[in-house]
Design goal:
Strand content: 5-15%
Radius of gyration: 23 Å
Number of strands: 11
Structural class: alpha/beta
Strand order of the largest sheet: 4-6-7-10-11
Helix content: 25-40%
Distance between the termini: 48 Å
Order of helices and strands: HEEEEHEHHEHEHHHEEHHHHHHHEHEH
Low-confidence stretches: 1-40
Largest sheet: 5 strands, parallel
Length: about 500
């Protein structure tokens, strides 16, 4: 629809600011399109993007950029990066767009943004949104496998996991070694250059926060601001603490319920009920005939301790689903497993559709598992957690046969930078706790850390955070910005029944 501001448009014989908004928009679009075509790089065309069939479409400008699979090989085959530019609402936007970097690892940026576009509404008023599906995700040579996300949740034996992983490797169209974050940031820089963008405002959520930090390390002159949401510190290898952090948050949920009179009265002894439920399902999984909540197809499923752990872990990511946990755990403890089992079906199906498992493996097996310190893994704590050690064992089993890719020598070092950086955390985040933001920020010279109590994974959609985000990007900091609105962020109260919380 338009480019990156009048100063980046080649000279034209008609003064842009004296034209009508419609005529100016048409001329700016033509000039940018012509410049891109002449450079032979990215040709953006009108398109519509969406998070899926259930979501509305969003008007954008889309194109592709070819990149070598192996950047160090002149004869390497090429892959295409999928690019979408969502125009700012202002017809004369700032020249530096917002660049969302999705989580996972394995989710595409276009799908992520399309699902949460409302959270970018404030910041989009004056800045375009530049979306680049990271290689291996979305429309950028998606590195997928014909198996489900149960592998990641540790639902299979080591032998079965290894067999599935080998079968996955045989189906991939590209060499999976070259899908690491170190190569992905070079891809993003190539897109920036191809589109002649002076600088980027990075927003990275979860795994995307790792990519954002490494891009800023490699290309500081091209990075204007950084927002890290659900922070992954570079020096931390993810995996060994997943079960422990999930257990910490579940204990916090039980404690919140015990301190909330209506919840405690309705679900007394919730923690003990959960422990009894876990032992019962571990000894004998429940057999259910259940209509899948997304497809309506009746399925025969086995709901045991592993399925229970997967359902509870994923429900703990957001306070709206946390509100349902005491009720669902109580129902299951009384032998009514269908509500929790349906949540398990729905969340794992959604994960399978949104995450590229091959991309997930490419990152974990190159950037995390090789850096595990066995002496620091607390086996007793893992055994005591509701997830247990099986998820970590599954990751290690997959990576025992997955080829490792290139990782920059300084990739695991904390980012030392003066680039303005905002770090966002949820006090009840089950995978990236506030302590991770503290660890990441230790070498930042201009950093603001915000934590929202009782919130889960990802803060941009919570309360007034979209407005704070906009002010941070505009001002390159939060000095003088009133963040007290965070105190009024809504946390869904616990449901006492399926009709909702207490009145």
């Amino acid at each position: 629809m338009h480019g990156y501001g009048p100063q980046d448009i080649p000279p034209v014989p008609i003064p842009l600011f004296d034209m009508s908004p419609t005529a100016r928009l048409v001329l700016m679009t033509f000039a940018l399109h012509a410049a891109g075509a002449a450079a032979g790089t990215v040709d953006l065309e009108d398109c519509r993007i969406s998070a899926g069939p259930a979501f509305p479409t969003i008007k954008a400008r889309c194109g592709t950029l070819e990149r070598p699979v192996n950047p160090d090989d002149a004869q390497s085959p090429l892959l295409e990066l999928e690019i979408a530019l969502v125009p700012a609402l202002n017809l004369e936007p700032e020249p530096d767009p917002i660049v969302p970097l999705a989580g996972g690892p394995g989710q595409g940026a276009i799908q992520f943004y399309s699902a949460y576009a409302h959270a970018f509404g404030h910041v989009r008023r004056d800045r375009d949104i530049l979306l680049v599906d990271q290689r291996g995700t979305g429309g950028s040579a998606r590195l997928d496998c014909p198996v489900d996300e149960d592998l990641i949740e540790g639902q299979y034996s080591t032998e079965t996991t290894i067999r599935y992983t080998r079968e996955c490797l045989e189906t991939l169209a590209h060499d999976p070694r070259f899908f690491t974050s170190s190569i992905a940031v070079a891809d993003l820089e190539a897109v920036r250059i191809a589109l002649d963008i002076p600088a980027l405002n990075l927003y990275g959520v979860s795994y995307g926060s790792r990519v954002a930090q490494h891009y800023a390390r490699r290309y500081p002159e091209a990075t204007r601001t950084i927002v890290l949401d659900g922070v992954v510190p570079p020096q931390l290898a993810l995996g060994p603490d997943i079960a422990l952090e999930a257990q910490r948050v579940l204990d916090t949920i039980f404690a919140r319920c015990a301190l909330d009179p209506p919840c405690d009265e309705r679900f007394p002894g919730l923690s003990a009920s959960f422990e009894a439920l876990k032992k019962r399902l571990d000894a004998k999984p429940a057999k259910l005939e259940l209509a899948h909540p997304l497809t309506g197809v009746v399925e025969s499923i086995s709901f045991g301790r592993l399925e229970l752990a997967a359902a509870v872990r994923l429900l703990a990511y957001h306070p709206n689903t946390v509100a349902l946990l005491p009720l669902m755990i109580s129902e299951a403890a009384d032998g009514r497993y269908a509500p929790l089992a349906a949540q398990y079906q729905m969340t794992t199906s959604s994960l399978s559709e949104s995450l590229a498992l091959g991309m997930h493996n490419a990152v974990m097996c190159s950037e995390d598992v090789p850096y595990y310190d066995a002496s620091r893994i607390d086996g007793a704590a893992l055994d005591a957690s509701f997830i247990g050690p099986l998820q970590l064992a599954a990751i290690e089993a997959m990576c025992s046969v997955w080829p490792r890719g290139p990782v920059d020598a300084d990739f695991k070092e904390p980012l030392a930078t003066g680039i303005p950086t905002l770090l966002l955390s949820g006090g009840a985040d089950p995978v990236t706790p506030p302590s991770y933001a503290d660890l990441a920020a230790q070498a930042f010279r201009r950093a603001w850390l915000l934590t929202q109590p009782d919130q889960g994974h990802g803060q941009l959609v919570v309360g007034c955070m979209p407005r704070i985000f906009e002010q941070f990007v505009q001002n390159r900091g939060l000095d003088g910005v009133d963040t007290s609105c965070m105190e009024r962020s809504f946390v869904m109260p616990f449901f006492l029944g399926y009709s909702g919380p207490a009145p």
